Amino acid sequence: METTTAKTGTRFGDRAFQWLTLLMALSVFVLIVLIGYELAQGSQLALQKFGWHFLVSSNWDPVNEQYGALPFIFGTLVSSVIALFIAVPVSIATAVYLTELAPLWLRQPLIMFIELLAAVPSVILGLWGFYVMVPWLHSHLFPALRLTLGFLPLFQGPDYGPCMLAAGIILAIMIIPIITSVSREILRSVPGLQREAAYALGATRWEVTRIAVLSYAKKGLFGAVILGLGRALGETMAVTMVIGNRPEIAKSLFAPGYTLASVIANEFTEATTDTYLSALFEIGLVLLGVTVLVNALAQLLLKTFAGPGVKPQQ
Amino acid sequence: MNPTMTPGEEKTIPQTRRESKDESREPTPNAPRPTLDPLAQRSEAETARPSTASAVSALTVRHLSVFFGENHVLKDVSLDIAARAVTAIIGPSGCGKSTFLRALNRMHELVPEARMTGEIRLFGDDIYAPGIEPVVVRRRVGMVFQKSNPFPTMSITDNVTVGLRLNGLRDRKLLAERTEQSLRMAALWDEVKDRLNAPAISLSGGQQQRLCIARALAVQPEVLLMDEPASALDPLATSKIEDLILELKKDYTIVIVTHNMQQAARMSDFTAFLYLGELVEFDVTKKIFASPAKKQTEDYVTGRFG
Fold first, then answer.
1. Which of the 8 DSSP states describes residue A268?
2. What is the maximum alpha-carbon separation in chain A?
3. Does residue A91 or residue B11 have the better pLDDT?
4. Which value does ipTM take for this structure?
5. Is residue B1 part of a domain?
6. Phi-psi category of B223—alpha, beta or left, where left has phi over 0 and alpha has psi -120 to 50?
7. Residue B163 contacts A where some CB pair is shorter than 8 Å
8. In chain B, which residues have pLDDT < 50?
9. How many angstroms separate the CA of residue B78 from the nearest CA in chain A?
């Protein structure tokens, strides 16, 4: 008898626990739907007025009530891509060093520093970016780039300091910690037996890393990169402070740009007309859409190109 | 180093043969050397290979001690491992079997704070001599592990040829030849010849283990170390692996660690019994199991402890 009651008691507890966790999980889903709904509601006016034109127009003119999101979409994507270009090699190399090569005593302090970098508030990074990094880029890195890669349109034209490249670099600094720590976890999860298999074949450390570790982990590493990209797309404060905030699409990375997130942060306080505010809401909707789209695309890429049985680079 | 040693080149071994033979006659104070007549012990199954081969020592281990930090794991082990024969290492868990095996191709060095004293010679070459890279040793002394560990992102072929490709072999025809040869030796060819480009993880557990053996054989090592290669397999797959080992010893020197007494008795020519890091007894397998010299050995092989 007693055992039965005890059992039903447990069963009730189990069920309650199950429902509770389900509720929590659902709340996340509901929250996302609500945010999307609210954004769509808020942008009704702009949606009606500009339609699809909003996405392809480069004209952002609050005075004449003309709004187009293209320069912001461009700025968001380009600055994030620059960030990935810089951050991915650095992060993955750091993760490989931390898991495969670094002496044990050095690992923990290094990990701590990387986590500390993640903890630096965005606005502080932005201040540092504006007052320290941008002047340095302007006086050192940009001239050097002009000299070596100046034949590319990317590195031509005037530079004033704040620009797309500066934003990409700041973003890179901001996403290095997340990509590094996720990659480190991924690499740590590679079974020791995989490494031993390669070592037993007479592989050097680099060869072991290449054939046993990186190829085993490539799917997970791709996931880590996507996480970083997600961060970069939505990052606001630091980017706003160094990108120059000019809504134009320029070939040169030395030219100022603007991102979806920055324009919202910069202009929502001055959005005095309903259409203006609605346009900013639609910018938010577009940002959400871009983020979702990029993530979906990444998932697709992962399924198509990194399925089981894919040959590693030889 | 020439990564593609042909069987012809392998025949240069007899030059070192005499040396190592002489050396093996040296009395070693600590370990009981098997006082065996190599020709006599082969009387039952000698047809499989030239009887002269059994006189050669592939590996001579002298006063081997291994430490992991403060832990003294192997204590002054000395023994000779005969070429083209199967030597089994038995003993209860934690006796240092695996450590001994790993010291033979310097795999134990992957453990931080590992160090060793003593000497191990591979056909006369001191594998711990200064300037000798572990990488070079491991290419001569291959290894198969307890759990099969094919590279999951690679195809069957790529798994077999990965060692050769690491050595810089690019010739497609040669790679294909070696793939077939290695897979045949590992008794896997007939099962996979129609799907060589399938991912390695599509194979069954036993097949994966044989694939790992093929991978180790492809680089044509002189010695093959096996760390309980069948312990994670079902009886059928186990017997396939055992048949394979008996087949392989015609060409290879095999050192196998096993927990399975029957397996050791069935397959090996020589058996070493380790206990608490010390070599208790080393002799012809038949003798170890029928009339061991030490009481401890007898207790272990009859299942009274361990």
1. G
2. 87
3. A91
4. 0.78
5. no
6. beta
7. yes
8. 1-53
9. 23
Q: DSSP letter at A169?
A: H
Question: Chain B residue with minimal CA distance to A219?
Answer: B153
What are the CA-CA distances from residue B278 to residues A30, A210, B264, B292, B296 (Å)?
66, 38, 19, 16, 12
* A207 interaction partners in chain B (CB closer than 8 Å): 166
Q: Is residue A169 part of a domain?
A: yes
Hey, is the C-beta of A29 within 8 angstroms of any chain B C-beta? Answer: no
Inter-chain residue contact A191 with B143, CB threshold 8 Å: no
Measure the CA–CA gap between A253 and A272, rounded to whole angstroms: 32
- Please provide residue B12's backbone torsions phi and psi, each rounded to the nearest 5 degrees: -70, -10
What is the count of structural domains for chain A?
1
Please tell me the distance in Å from B239's CA to the nearest CA on chain A. Answer: 23
Cβ distance A309 to B151 less than 8 Å, yes or no, reads no
Task: Give the C-alpha separation, A238 to A235, whole Å.
Answer: 7
Judge if pTM exceeds 0.80: no
Query: Which DSSP symbol is given to A313?
Result: P
Residue B306 lies in a domain: no
Q: Which CATH number do you get for residue A208?
A: 1.10.3720.10
- Residue A203, chain B, CB below 8 Å: the answer is yes
pLDDT in tens, A114-168: 999 989 999 999 999 999 999 999 999 999 999 999 899 899 888 888 999 999 9
For the stretch B120-156, pLDDT in tens is 999 999 999 999 999 999 999 999 999 999 999 999 9
Predicted local confidence at residue B55, as pLDDT: 62
Tell me whether residue A78 is in a domain: yes
Give me B159's structure tokens. 């798994």
- Domain span at residue A215 reads 70-257
Which has the closest alpha carbon to A74: A240, A291, A257, A302? A257
pLDDT tens, residue by residue, A191-244: 999 999 999 999 999 999 999 999 999 988 998 999 999 999 999 999 999 999
Q: What is the DSSP annotation of A74-89? A: HHHHHHHHHHHHHHHH
Question: Can you give the pLDDT at residue B113?
Answer: 87
Of B107, B135, B219, which has the smallest distance from its Cβ to A196's Cβ?
A: B107
Between CA B108 and CA B100 the distance in angstroms is 9
Please classify residue A240 by burial: count the beta carbons closer than 10 Å to its beta carbon, then call 0-12 exposed, 13-18 middle and 19+ buried. Answer: buried
CA distance B172 to chain A (A): 13
**Can you read off the two tokens belonging to residue A309?**
């049985």
Q: Does A36 fall in a domain?
A: no
Pick from A199, A211, A314: CB nearest B110: A199
CA A275 distance to own-chain centroid: 30
Does the beta carbon of B107 lie under 8 angstroms from any beta carbon of chain A? yes
Tally the domains of chain B. Answer: 1
The answer to the question of residue B47 being in a domain is no
A200 vs B105: CB contact, 8 Å cut-off? yes
- Which residues of chain A are within 8 Å of residue B212 when distances are taken between CB atoms? 197
Kindly state whether residue A33 falls inside one of the protein's structural domains. no
Structural domain that includes position B68: 12-41+56-301
Closest chain A residue to B169, measured at CA: A314
Half-sphere exposure of B297 (CA within 13 A, CB side): 23
Q: Do B145 and A199 touch (CB under 8 A)?
A: no
**Assigned domain for B5 exists:** no
In chain A, residues 101-120 whose CB comes closer than 8 Å to chain B: 104
Q: Is B284 exposed, middle or buried (0-12, 13-18, 19+ CB in 10 A)?
A: buried
**CATH for B72:** 3.40.50.300
